[in-house]
Q: What sequence folds into this?
């Protein structure tokens, strides 16, 4: 305890008591930690967030499926085959495990037809069950190897086929590509318009700002569904009009974000200093203020992508999706939904795809948000 | 707000008017009937007169007549009988998601960075990401078709509990997203408020951790919830469009899908107007209630 | 110095924070005592551990903080060993705290009155009406005009100084014996500062408070303190009566701190303390201030100095007080100023 025994004077050799830095100049030194830039810091923290890293790789895998996936098998997304409609999924390898082995259950078949080798070729019937008599006729449910049934034993439709005999794997990859393109293009457009609009409103302020924000408010009061539906009704379906429909209202959050950033930074000392040095408006906007907003902008973009994918699927469900035969995740989902009870696999694959995609984008966006959050800077 | 409504009406008019072909393009009608109908709707006049006619009609509740789904019935009447079920479904979803979301958000915030928080956060990400129609599809297949716990589709004729049982799945499907939204928002607000200076002051008064959390942080966190109710409610509405179709619920959402697919444009536009009015109404309601809840707005503070 | 009855004794207290980048040793073996009826000031720059020390006393450390060692003795209780429930009975009732930032320490959505009565009602000895009357009286006591009207208002309707008065009213609501003021005037305008300080002094007389006053402002110290503790890099480096510290500062940091305060006679450039405070992720060995001290000796970098006794009331932890140490000159500004102060004192 120092308070009670302060007077014990230790023995220290005399030579220790000489001044060691009397002639040195003491400078203001920073902490000895290495200076880390904004993006490097964000990247370090992003990497520590395991969920985000996993999400990032999932996005990568799905994107490459979207680009290359349709070349993995011999079918094309529009090739119809009336003899191969509604084939259940069959994957080489996996079929030996008893899943995705091309079997399906046919309900309410007449027992005598099941026994007829012309209708059910040798070996195609795996199991007959649920035998009952309906109005004097023997009815059964039967589990069949559908590929043997239609004589396609050498063919593999990984995710099955739809009601026109189109390969669903190919269509899903193609559909994912289409959905991602719609999402990306609309988001990039949104961000661009948002930046320009928000920067002008925030930088010039005053009346300009007031009127510009009033316009935002009015547009924002339209429900998203109403805007998008009316737009498509007006301009017709198609990739371009879907993208435009997503842009009409989509740029507003970005504009607000950028405006807020500008309002915050435009009166900072360093901006005022630049202005007194005669730096022009454009240079101040682009060189001095906008770079502060890059983190939030990237995060904003990532958050918007799942929203765009959702809107596209929504439109497809309402019947305002892309024109056939072009697939999108939403179109596949809504087509699959129609035959859910008969051919559930047709709905499951796109359901899984859209869910995984949305979860991955959301997780990645969360990670980015935390990584760019200035209040968390330096904390890994 | 009036401006917005006016703009919506104008755009609605343009959509109906500029649609290729006649709006009454129905193969069952003869040319004479179509012309008579057009004359009645003053579609043979110049567009400016049509426009005022349209506005006048819209304000009086006359939004034209349906063409295909219920031929010659005023769309207002068609919608009217579909409204109650839609409103019921949406309101119930909203009402059940708020308390559940608030509860989950509180649990997560109070156990920050511990197991309950991790589990809740994991569920939140999933519920926010997966669209309501995917939930609807999966639940319809597994819970209704495979397990047989619920009817596969909504049954309007069933009475009492059976009716509500058939509404369970669509309600659940619509609620997952909002529950997650409320949870995430409340958790964020609560964590911020729990670490605020006034929480420290509340504790230095001698309040226990839980007293302080409940009286100060929790109350203050619930106020800004009003902010997310608007997007949440319109989100539910949007989701109900599709979910209603999946479960064959005879609501406004299903009507819109039908009218779009049969090009019954008067009906589509009327449904859209209905949605606009509802969401404008929600915005108004939230604005007003916000003023009541937050003294800084009520008393005209400027902070 | 009158050695009064000690009411709060902090002994060898060490507090660390676990952060992602490592363990930050914010407080490293701090000891001090507070006697009944006196005001002690703890002085130091930002990050020296002052606020962490008082947060430890109040038991409101964030979860990332760990008390490594030490005891806080209040009326025979060791506060570091209390459970959360026991602590809730100490806070407000025995020890009150005033925060640095009155703007954010009041709940923005709750009426001022309720925030005060809430404290009064904790003991369940009052009816709501009595609490209301007591709260209005308190508001009057801290110098708020029209307390009845103000009772019904919200924090945003109050100015900064007024809010600090409300915070003081809340801190005093349950008649604590010890009042801790954590830089209560830093966020306020200079003109308001003096009034708040006077209010605290006045309340101290009326209510026989013992006060721990945290500040980095030596002007405030001169106004308030009976005794002064100087803190640097998580340690107390010097303590003594206000006179001891102002007239005979011994630790190089205390000297530098005093020299950097301007007064009416200051000419030319203001003296500043060169260098930066140490990074508490890697606390310095030896005397923490050595790297910034022109007269640092080799021993300063190698071994931590013990507390040397200067007088009965005045102690400092610096090797320059060791008998073998060479004479270290007082900074010119300071020597001049102390001479003037002494003369002034003699003339008066």
A:
């Amino acid at each position: 305890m120092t308070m009670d025994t302060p007077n014990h004077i230790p023995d220290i050799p005399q030579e220790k008591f000489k001044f060691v830095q009397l002639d040195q100049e003491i400078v203001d030194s920073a902490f000895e930690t290495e200076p880390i830039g904004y993006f490097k810091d964000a990247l370090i923290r992003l990497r520590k967030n395991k969920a985000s890293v996993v999400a990032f790789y999932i996005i990568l895998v799905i994107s490459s499926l979207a680009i290359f996936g349709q070349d993995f098998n011999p079918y094309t997304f529009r090739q119809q085959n009336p003899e191969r409609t509604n084939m259940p999924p069959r994957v080489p390898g996996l079929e030996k495990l008893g899943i995705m082995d091309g079997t399906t259950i046919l309900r309410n078949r007449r027992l005598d037809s099941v026994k007829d080798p012309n209708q059910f070729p040798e070996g195609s019937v795996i199991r007959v069950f649920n035998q009952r008599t309906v109005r004097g006729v023997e009815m059964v449910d039967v589990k069949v190897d559908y590929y043997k049934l239609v004589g396609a034993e050498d063919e593999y439709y990984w995710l099955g086929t739809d009601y026109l005999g189109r390969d669903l794997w190919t269509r899903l990859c193609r559909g994912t590509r289409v959905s991602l393109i719609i999402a990306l293009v609309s988001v990039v457009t949104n961000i661009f318009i948002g930046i320009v609009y928000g920067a002008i409103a925030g930088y010039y302020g005053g009346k300009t700002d007031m009127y510009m924000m009033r316009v935002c408010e009015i547009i924002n009061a339209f429900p998203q569904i109403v805007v998008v539906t009316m737009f498509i009704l007006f301009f017709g379906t198609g990739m371009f009009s879907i993208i435009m429909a997503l842009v009409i209202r989509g740029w507003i959050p970005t504009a607000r974000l950028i405006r807020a950033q500008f309002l915050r930074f435009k009166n900072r000392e360093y901006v005022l200093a630049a202005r007194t040095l005669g730096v022009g408006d454009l240079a101040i906007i682009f060189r001095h203020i906008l770079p502060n907003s890059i983190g939030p902008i990237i995060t904003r973009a990532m958050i918007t992508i799942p929203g765009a994918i959702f809107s596209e699927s929504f439109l497809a469900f309402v019947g305002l999706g892309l024109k056939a035969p072009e697939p999108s995740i939403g179109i596949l989902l809504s087509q699959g939904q129609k035959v859910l009870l008969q051919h559930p696999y047709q709905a499951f694959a796109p359901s899984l795809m859209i869910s995984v995609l949305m979860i991955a984008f959301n997780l990645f966006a969360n990670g980015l948000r935390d990584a760019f959050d200035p209040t968390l800077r330096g904390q890994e | 707000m009036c401006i917005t409504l006016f703009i919506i009406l104008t755009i609605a008019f343009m959509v109906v008017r500029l649609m290729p072909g006649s709006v009454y393009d129905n193969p069952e009608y003869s040319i004479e009937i179509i012309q008579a109908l057009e004359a009645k709707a003053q579609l043979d006049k110049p567009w400016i007169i049509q426009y005022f006619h349209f506005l006048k009609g819209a304000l009086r509740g006359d939004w034209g007549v349906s063409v295909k789904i219920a031929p010659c019935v005023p769309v207002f009447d068609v919608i009217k009988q579909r409204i109650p079920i839609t409103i019921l479904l949406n309101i119930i979803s909203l009402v059940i998601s708020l308390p559940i979301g608030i509860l989950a958000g509180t649990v997560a915030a109070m156990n920050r960075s511990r197991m309950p928080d991790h589990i809740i956060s994991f569920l939140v990400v999933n519920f926010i990401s997966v669209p309501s129609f995917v939930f609807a599809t999966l639940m319809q297949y597994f819970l209704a078709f495979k397990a047989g716990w619920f009817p596969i589709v909504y049954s309007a004729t069933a009475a009492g509990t059976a009716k509500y049982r058939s509404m369970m799945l669509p309600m659940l499907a619509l609620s997952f997203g909002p529950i997650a939204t409320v949870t995430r928002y409340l958790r964020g607000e609560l964590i911020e408020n729990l670490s605020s200076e006034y929480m420290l002051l509340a504790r230095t008064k001698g309040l226990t951790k839980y007293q302080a959390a409940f009286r100060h942080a929790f109350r203050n966190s619930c106020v800004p919830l009003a902010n997310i109710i608007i997007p949440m409610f319109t989100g539910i509405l949007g989701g109900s469009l599709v979910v209603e179709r999946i479960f064959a619920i005879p609501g406004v959402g299903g009507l819109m899908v039908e009218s779009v697919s049969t090009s019954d444009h008067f009906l589509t536009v009327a449904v859209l107007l209905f949605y606009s009015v509802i969401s404008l109404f929600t915005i108004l309601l939230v604005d007003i209630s916000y003023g009541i809840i937050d003294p800084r707005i009520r008393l005209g503070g400027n902070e | 110095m009158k050695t009064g009855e000690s009411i709060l004794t902090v002994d060898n207290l060490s507090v660390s924070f676990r952060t992602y980048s490592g363990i930050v040793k914010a407080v490293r073996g701090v000891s001090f005592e507070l006697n009944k009826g006196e005001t002690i000031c703890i002085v130091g720059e930002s990050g020296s551990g002052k606020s962490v020390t008082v947060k430890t006393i109040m038991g409101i450390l964030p979860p990332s903080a760990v008390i490594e060692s030490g005891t806080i003795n209040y009326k025979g209780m060791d506060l570091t060993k209390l459970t959360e429930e026991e602590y809730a009975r100490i806070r407000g009732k025995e020890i009150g705290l005033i925060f640095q930032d009155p703007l954010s320490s009041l709940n923005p959505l709750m009426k001022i009155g309720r925030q005060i009565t809430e404290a009064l009602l904790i003991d369940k000895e009052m009816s709501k009406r009595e609490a209301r009357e007591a709260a209005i009286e308190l508001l009057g006591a801290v110098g708020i005009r029209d307390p009845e009207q103000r009772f019904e208002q919200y924090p945003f309707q109050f100015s900064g100084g007024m809010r600090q008065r409300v915070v003081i009213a809340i801190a005093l609501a349950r008649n604590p014996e010890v009042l801790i003021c954590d830089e209560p005037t830093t966020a306020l305008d200079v003109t308001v500062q003096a009034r708040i300080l006077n209010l605290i002094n006045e309340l101290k007389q009326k209510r026989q408070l013992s006060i721990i006053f945290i500040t980095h402002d030596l002007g405030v110290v001169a106004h308030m303190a009976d005794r002064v503790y100087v803190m640097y890099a998580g340690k107390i480096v010097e303590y003594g009566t206000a006179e001891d510290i102002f007239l005979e500062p011994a630790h190089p940091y205390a000297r530098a701190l005093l020299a950097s305060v301007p007064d009416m006679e200051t000419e030319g450039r203001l003296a500043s303390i060169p260098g930066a405070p140490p990074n508490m992720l890697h606390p310095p060995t030896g005397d923490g201030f050595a790297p910034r001290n022109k007269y640092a000796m080799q021993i300063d970098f190698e071994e931590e100095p013990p507390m040397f006794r200067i007088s009965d009331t005045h102690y400092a932890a610096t090797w320059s007080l060791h008998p073998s140490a060479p004479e270290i000159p007082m900074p010119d500004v300071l020597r001049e100023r102390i001479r003037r102060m002494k003369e002034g004192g003699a003339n008066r």
Remarks:
- The first helix of chain C runs from residue 50 to 58.
